[in-house]
Amino acid sequence: MDELSPEALPDGTLWGSWRVKRRAGYGTYGAVYQAHRRGRFHWKHRRSVNTHYQATPADDVYALGVTAYRLCTGIYPPPATDPSIVGDDGRDTQEVLVPPSQLKPLAPALERLILRMLSDRPQDRGSAVELASAMEAAADAAGAEADVPLNPSSRTSGVTSPPAPAPRQAGNWSGVLLPLIAGVLILVVESLRWEGFLAPPSGMTDGGTGGVADAAVEELPVSR
Description:
Shape: globular
Oligomer: single chain
Largest sheet: 3 strands, antiparallel
Number of helices: 5
Strand order of the largest sheet: 1-4-3
Low-confidence stretches: 1-7, 9-50, 154-162, 164-171, 202-224
Structural class: alpha+beta
């Protein structure tokens, strides 16, 4: 099992089933990929191996989008395979990003937010503040489509009576959306730090970059 940063992989490198291990201070493109060398698919990173890349808050937004895609569909977006299936090197992967609604029922508003966070262009992903506002607005305006289970149970045979009317439950879509809002709020703190409003403690830096986990444990300065 090897650990390496995706920036270090040249185009065309063969890798098998892999998983992303969260690592504070590196953002999405600095996530650590653990892979078996006997893989069957070609992974081509968009960035040149010789180009130095400085992680930004936009990378953490992308990481949040990857997490949301995984929560809603059960798989990671390309080039990943399902990390829960260890040793399955023959598992198929997505060649291109498939909208999550093609894999599982999903509210259109949530899908748009996920695809926005997964945009190839960092400037198109939006800031943490914009995403937090958009997510809250989407949750408030969610209709009946938000009640569709992400993992519907198999149908049972036999005749059943119609269910009794019940108030709309928000446990399906909101169960995914609310953790995302919490994550974006953490990104707000991170964005403020990158914009210079908060000074990172000297002991909290990691190779000159900062991540979501760093921001979550930092203490805001107290005025006296």
